[in-house]
Write a structure and sequence with these properties.
Length: about 250
């Protein structure tokens, strides 16, 4: 899936999957369509997408030491693409390089998340409005489909499907906004936010509510309603901020 490069989105219907064990479990396997999309990417992009999902779904939990050779064997991808993917993950804040210890999956920090949300709120509002104004007919259809699939994922209590749809939504909104500067700023925050949500959602989140709030943004963009898209984005960010603060009590 490479919406930034303008590739048309392929949105899959949500499906029920077995509930994963958050502690060290493998991420849900890709379906044939998802696998085909991954294979369309460069090896470095393939490595990045797969590692990002393993980290954001806590299959590689915080503190895990990452070795290029082990990751290359696990993903069946060469060490050079793995190295490039790790460099990108470090820029995203998902891994850290520590002298004499190597590369570690970064810790999850509430204070960092709250600072991130201060910036993300402004960017999400801007991107939602721009996407509603600038999305093509094909992109608007994709937004409508993502909205329906997010609600289906919530109905099926399929957290992995919802996470994948959330990434599709973020990438599609980025492409539709036609503003590379806002996109670059937001890109580094999206994966950190997904990982934080995945760690805490069973204790503090409401998956149907989260899905509906995301879907409302998608539907406003699909209808080319700029004002409604901005307002829906603000409601979504209100919920995400409230969710982050609730984790203090869990």
């Amino acid at each position: 899936m490479n919406y930034i490069a303008g590739k048309p989105p392929a949105v899959r219907p949500a499906r029920r999957s077995k509930k994963p064990n958050h502690k060290g479990a493998s991420a849900a396997p890709l379906d044939p369509v998802e696998q085909g999309e991954i294979q369309d990417l460069s090896l470095a992009e393939q490595a990045y997408h797969q590692l990002e999902e393993l980290i954001t779904t806590l299959a590689l939990p915080p503190g895990t030491v990452l070795a290029e050779q082990g990751l290359a064997q696990r993903l069946q991808i060469g060490r050079t693409p793995i190295r490039e993917a790790l460099q990108r993950l470090a820029r995203d804040g998902l891994v850290v390089v520590i002298p004499r210890r190597g590369i570690l999956v970064s810790e999850i920090n509430l204070r960092t998340q709250l600072r991130l949300l201060e910036t993300r709120r402004v960017l999400e509002h801007l991107i939602a409005r721009l996407a509603a104004e600038r999305a093509t007919a094909e992109e608007r259809r994709a937004f409508a489909e993502i909205a329906a699939n997010m609600r289906a994922a919530a109905d099926a209590a399929d957290d992995i499907a919802f996470m994948r749809l959330d990434r599709q939504f973020n990438e599609l909104a980025a492409a539709a906004s036609r503003n590379e500067f806002a996109v670059r700023s937001l890109n580094s925050m999206a994966a950190l936010s997904r990982r934080f949500w995945y760690q805490h959602y069973k204790e503090a989140a409401d998956l149907p509510l989260a899905a509906n709030l995301h879907a409302e943004v998608c539907e406003a963009i699909a209808k080319r309603d700029v004002k409604a898209a901005g307002e829906a984005s603000d409601r979504l960010m209100d919920y995400i901020d409230s969710f982050a603060r609730k984790t203090l009590d869990t």
